[in-house]
Amino acid sequence: METQATASAKQAEGKKSAAKLLIGRYHHQLTQGCGNTNCVNQNCATGNPSTQLGANEAAVVAIRLMRTRAPLCEQSTVDRTITIEDMEVDSSLNIGGKCLTGTIFPGKAMEVLDEEKLSSIIKECTGSKDFSKLKQTLWDIFSSQESLANSWLQGSVKTKTRSLSKGEPGASTRKLTKEEVRTMEGESEKDVDSAQATVSESQSDSQPSYSIDLDSLRRSYEQLFGLDNSIFEAGLVNAIVMLCSNLEMDLKCKPNIWKDLNFLNAYLVVVELPVLGSEAYLENVVPVLCRGIALLPLPYQVVLAKLWSDYSASKLKSLLENLQQILSLKVYTGAFTRERVINEDETITSVTSVIRILYYASLLAGERDSSCDSWDVDDPVPCASENDNFAAVEIIPNSLRERYHDPMGAALQISPLDVRVPLIPSEEFYNEPLNETIEMDKDFSFWKISEDMGSFDRTKFSFMSHPFILNPATKTQALYYDNRIRMYSTRRENLFQSLMGGQSSPFLKLRVHRDRLIMDALVEIEMVVLDNPGDLKKQLMVEFDEEQGIDEGGLSKEFFQLIVEEMFNPDYGMFILDEETASFWFNPSSYENDAEFTLVGIILGLAIYNNVILDLHLPGVIYRKLSGKRGLFQDLTTFKPSVHRSLQSMLDYTGDDFEEVFCQPFQISYTDLFGSTITKELCDGGEERFVTKDNVIEYVDSYADFLLNKSVSAQFLAFQRGFSLVTAESPLGMLFNPAELEILICGEKEFDFNELESSTEYDGGFDKDTPAVKWFWELIHSMSLDDKRRLLQFTTGSDRIPIGGLAKLKLIITRNGPDSDRLPSAHTCFNVLLLPEYKDKEKLFNLTYKAIKECKGFGML
Question: What is the pTM of this model?
Answer without folding.
Answer: 0.76
